[in-house]
Here is the input.
Amino acid sequence: MPPARAADGTPSTPAATPQTGRPAPAVGPSPPAASGPTGLFGLLGTCHPVPAAAVTLFAAALAAAVGRSLPGAALTVAAVAAGQLSVGWCNDRVDLGRDLATGRRDKPLVSGAVRPAAVTAAALTALLLCVPLSLAGGWLAGCAHLCGVAAAWAYNLRLKGTAVSWLPYALAFGLLPAFVTLGLPGAPWPPWWLTAAAALLGAGAHFANVLPDIDDDLATGVVGLPHRLGARRSAAVGGLLVLGSAVALVAGPPGRVPPYGWVLLAATAAAVLLGAGLPTGRSRIPFLVTMAIAGADVVLLLVRGADLAGLR
Here is the structure.
């Protein structure tokens, strides 16, 4: 539920949180927002640049693997980048009240490095650009991508604090391969194993991304599925989802599993076990490990591009 707002429209802090019964941290006004180059860097920092870049690179690699033409691949990358930027900016803007309440000075909006109005405008502009860029690849492909972007916005605006918080991630990631392949001649759907691998990876990324912020989220009324399971069980579930993604990507294509497939599975299993042994807290290691595994999945996808040859 979005935070309450004071009469002047700024986020206000509740007297006590429903989960803990303790008063929320006192919050003063944020410093004046910077402008010029500093404000530009602040705007960049609010778009969640690491996951945005990772998802965009995944789309680019997939476009190369299925044989998209250079113009088609460029449109695909531009559409995914616009969608990711809109989602990242929307996320930080919606979370401003909660970030103020928990003293998240690492957030550009809280530190005053960028104005809220600038982030709102950037999110809406990127979203508007995403529509024609997505539809340029065809109506079916465009609708698949826009459904994924809509799911991500729904997470930011409402579903983040519900038991189905994992669903927008699974849906958005799972539809990404369809966006890429439906833009090919004949509009073929991606193979089931690629969709499954992407959806599982997305759901796993959700659990890994939430882990460092579970306590702050609970203090401000956000109770998604990872919060209901607790940090330890959420880490285990996230690891299993990521491992399942690697299994689908390695074992799903027809034929024998190549040696590098087994290497990827072994490395993924080792990373999951290592992550399970780490203490839970504010560390972003689980999320970074998930991103590293996603990178390894992309490499495997490029190496096994022949498995997607039938889509060309």
